[in-house]
Amino acid sequence: MSEPKTPTPTPAGDTYKGWVFKWTNYIKGYQRRWFVLSNGLLSYYRTQAEMGHTCRGTINLATATITVDDACNFVISNGGAQTYHLKASCEVERQRWITALELAKAKAAHMQAESDDSGDDFSLSSPPVAPGQGGSHNSEVQSALRTLGSKVEDLSTCNDLISKHGSALQRSLSELDSLRLTGEAGDKIRQVTERATLFRITSNAMINACRDFLTLAQAHSKRWQKALQAERDQRVRLEETLEQLAKQHNHLERAFRGAAQANASADNKSAAGPGKGEASDEDDENEFFDAMEEAPEFITVPADPQFHKRSSSNVSGFNSEICPDDQSLNEEPLAMNQESPSQELVPLKKRRARIPDKPNYSLNLWSIMKNCIGKELSKIPMPVNFNEPISMLQRLSEDLEYHELLDKAAKCHSSLEQMCYVAAFSVSSYSTTVHRTGKPFNPLLGETYELDRRRESGYRSLCEQVSHHPPAAAHHVISDRGWTLRQEITVASKFRGKYLSIMPLGTIHAIFEKGNNHYTWKKVTTTVHNIIVGKLWIDQSGEIDVVNHTTGDRCHLKFAPYSYFSRDVARKVTGVVMDKDGKAHYVLSGTWDEKMEFSRVMQSSRGGENGTEGKQKTVYQTLKAREVWRRNPLPDGAETMYYFTSLALTLNEPEEGVAPTDSRRRPDQRLMEDGRWEEANAEKQRLEEKQRIARREREREAASQRTSSQSEEAVDEDPLTDPSLKSAPHDSYQALWFDRCEDPITGEQIHIYKGGYWETKDRGSWEGCPDIF
Q1: What is the membrane topology here (predicted)?
Q2: What span, in angstroms and rounded, lies between the C-alpha atoms of 673 and 652?
Q3: What is the residue-wise DSSP string for 639-708?
Q4: Does the fold of domain 365-606+617-690 match that of domain 15-112?
Q5: What gap in Å lies between CA 422 and CA 428, rounded to an integer?
């Protein structure tokens, strides 16, 4: 093995640690692992950096057996459930580990026997305390008491040994004295006897002192435990008092802000004064929380769900969540009609919670797929059997499933905190794909889809299919809660026989009114496996760079592809939030199908094992991880409803007043949802043929316009050499609600919403919409 020289394991008190080779499997063989022996437990990690967060395995030596195979190999097993085949770099190192393991095993077995017999000499029976510093302090106290008990036990053992060996020595000397030896030998024996007597006197004095200390320690042990328990109870009471104070402070703050808003609405002229004072109070709070952030040691107060966000943000640094407006994320069943001058309450529309079950139709897959290998997916006439009853425009709108992440981001005072929410939002859009193996309907050119959730969630969304070859959809979302989302996505897909690769092209933009922060990111590649044989499953892989173009902050997210040989959790996502100078402030980790967590970085350093390219990995020392996003559970019976989420079930629900080009009015999609798949296939072919006829008509019009423009040119103008004529478009189609322009941030040619849709809907005049259905 070309491994670097293994450092000699070093003991640290009762802890023994070092590098040992561990057998993993027949493919990788022995792999270098970092082993730590402490408190009778042998644990191992891939690197030293993992000691703070990820333990790969632990075995209790109290019930384990240790056997030696050869000069360097040895085996540790606890009876079959766990077996470690280990190999040291040399025989000396192996002997050091064997000695340390045997001593730790003897001590662990002795402590276990003592615990089974008495159990109350040095054990603590205390009620559970609050997580955080209290739990770590409790473990430190227990460790100190166990150490003290071990040392006292050693003294007792030494006491017994000295008494035993001293008595044996005295008997031997008495036997020698009785032999009546003369001359020089007798003098030597008498001298040895005198020294032995002096040693016995000294040893008896030490034994008596040790016995007195042991008796005193055992007598005061329970008293110390009672005092420690009293201190712990007092700390719990103080934390409960602090919790009550946090509640009272929260209620007072809400009452003050409610009164300030009432005064501002009553007297507009005096609104500037209270507004200034309120901002001053918030600044004072921010300074307090920022000071708390810098301290690695902190206290976590357990909180009720109503104010959990506030108390936890003080610790984690997410001070943006202190605003009482967070409760607006969970609206009441009644919402305010913003268009009514009387501000009367209007009941929200009840959305549907079920769609017809998916029928079980058989299909000869190979007969359809064998002629599709290597072709562009959007150009293949696919039956609805492979589809799900929503269009790509509706699928794009489904990214707003977790819009509350952007609502929270809009309230952040720090751009780095805001970046964490935006990054979590970029990951959350993939959570709905884990079971969704159906293909959305390709939108027809000019097809639109609106998602008006202004009264429920504060946002309005509009999508339009702005191009057909290549297929491109423009999306624009405006929220009353201070953010705007826009994107233009072009999907490139290739069928490779065994799997289908879907590569979304285009940039997503998120703009926040507060701070004018402008974020951009792209989507990763989606792969659908087992197209021909086996059960379909979906994987996401690639990297995302979320960039704040206003401040220069950046978050690099990595979606790990699935690997059979990987020990990491499946669908893993990791990321680091850095400022413009490259300094890390937050670490994100989780999975794209379940949840994401963040940790505040307190210190970073280069360390651990070298990476695959010879680079050292960065070790981040972070505070305790907190959850920033978790996937919503699927509704009951989702497996028979295409695994739709609660939002997806409502996307194709018929609504009055939508545009004639809205996806809800698409007949083949509606027939498929109703379970009439044969009729849906026929209707789908009719719509596609109608679209082809419309495209050919536009091409003829464009050709006639080019011909008329050429006739107006000078006679000596050569149309074959005129670059303007060569570059003239064959299709003169222009989107109805979006304008094509150059993105000032990315420089890409994109479509941006030009306005007018919602005003047209209010008037109910859709005369300008094309007839596509």
Answers
A1: Peripheral membrane protein
A2: 9
A3: GGTTT--HHHHHHT---TT--TTBGGG-HHHHHHHTT-HHHHHHHHHHHHHHHHHHHHHHHHHHHHHHHH
A4: no
A5: 10
DSSP bridge pairs for 329: none
CATH code 2.40.160.120 for 365-606+617-690:
yes
Q: How far apart are CA 761 and CA 286, in angstroms?
A: 43
Q: Which two tokens mark 545?
A: 């760079």
The DSSP output letter for 720 is T
CA proximity to 297, closest of 135, 128, 55, 126: 135
- For residues 598 and 460, what is the distance between their CA atoms, to the nearest angstrom? 29
> What pLDDT shows up at residue 104?
86
| CATH number assigned to the domain with residue range 15-112, chosen from the 4 options 2.40.50.140, 2.30.29.30, 1.20.1050.10, 2.60.120.260 | 2.30.29.30
| Of residues 379, 353, 500, 358, the one with CA closest to residue 433 | 500
Interatomic CA distance for residues 286 and 651, integer angstroms: 40
Strand 439-441 to strand 387-391: parallel, antiparallel, or no bridges (unpaired)? Answer: parallel
Residue 547 burial class via C-beta count within 10 angstroms: exposed 0-12, middle 13-18, buried 19 and up: buried
DSSP secondary structure string for all residues of 335-399: EE-TT-TT--EEEPPPPP---PPPP-----HHHHHTT-TTSBGGGS---GGGEEEEEHHHHHHGG
- Token code pair at residue 81: 């459930």
Return the amino acid letter for 540. Q
Q: Which residues contact 751 (CB under 8 A, 6 or more apart)?
A: 464, 466, 472, 474, 488, 735, 738, 739, 740, 741
User: Does the pLDDT of residue 461 top 90, yes or no?
Assistant: yes
How many other C-beta atoms are found inside a 10 Å radius of the C-beta of residue 151? 11
Among the listed residues 391, 449, 446, the one whose alpha carbon sits nearest the alpha carbon of residue 772: 446
Query: In sequence order, what are the residues at sequence separation of 6 or more whose Cβ sits closer than 8 angstroms to the Cβ of residue 24?
Result: 30, 31
Q: What is the pLDDT of residues 96-105, one digit of tens each?
A: 888 888 888 8
Domain-wise residue ranges, the chain: 15-112, 146-249, 365-606+617-690
- Which one, of 525, 592, 579, lies nearest residue 550 by Cα? 579
The pTM assigned to this predicted structure is 0.56
Q: How far apart are CA 570 and CA 286, in angstroms?
A: 38
Residue-wise DSSP of 484-548: EEEEEEEEEEEE-SSEEEEEEES-EEEEESGGG-EEEE-PPEEEEE-SSSS--EEEEEEEEEEEE
* Closest C-alpha among 480, 456, 481 to residue 331: 456
184: helix, strand or coil = helix
- For the ranges 382-386, 535-539, 649-653, which has the lowest average pLDDT? 382-386
pLDDT tens-digit profile of 640-681?
Answer: 999 999 999 999 999 999 999 999 999 999 999 999 988 998
Angle between helices 91-117 and 133-177 (to 10 degrees): 100
> pLDDT (tens digit, 9 = 90+) per residue, 385-420?
888 999 999 999 999 999 999 999 999 999 999 999
